[in-house]
């Protein structure tokens, strides 16, 4: 588990498989930091992430096994994250957000976490 900075990707010896998991909290923080300048866009992103965090809290409350928790997230959080991913990509594709702006950098960072 690490943030989405390329220098944090571990180097492994040949034959060793690493499962890389980028930290969503770091991506969320990027939007919190620019929210004053992009309130509507950041509110949308933070609300979508809040839904996923809410599902995680619900899964924990129910004491689900890892397999049940994965299925729960695939069913509940998956569609939320897919919608968010589409919105993030559309910001650049439809030229709604300048890539070099604070919001653009936050979007790029969150996309690098591999959200889906």
The average pLDDT is 89
Largest sheet: none
Radius of gyration: 16 Å
Oligomerization state: single chain
What is the 3D form? Answer: globular
Descriptive report:
The protein is mainly alpha-helical. It has 4 helices and no strands. The chain has helices at residues 24-34, 39-61, 66-93, 102-112. Helix 1 packs antiparallel against helix 4 (102-112), helix 2 (39-61) runs antiparallel to helix 3 (66-93) and helix 3 runs antiparallel to helix 4. The longest helix has 28 residues, at 66-93.
Brief digest:
The protein is mostly helical and 116 residues long. It has helices at residues 24-34, 39-61, 66-93, 102-112.
Topology, element by element:
Blueprint: H1 24-34, H2 39-61, H3 66-93, H4 102-112
What tags apply to this protein structure?
single chain; 116 residues; mainly alpha; globular
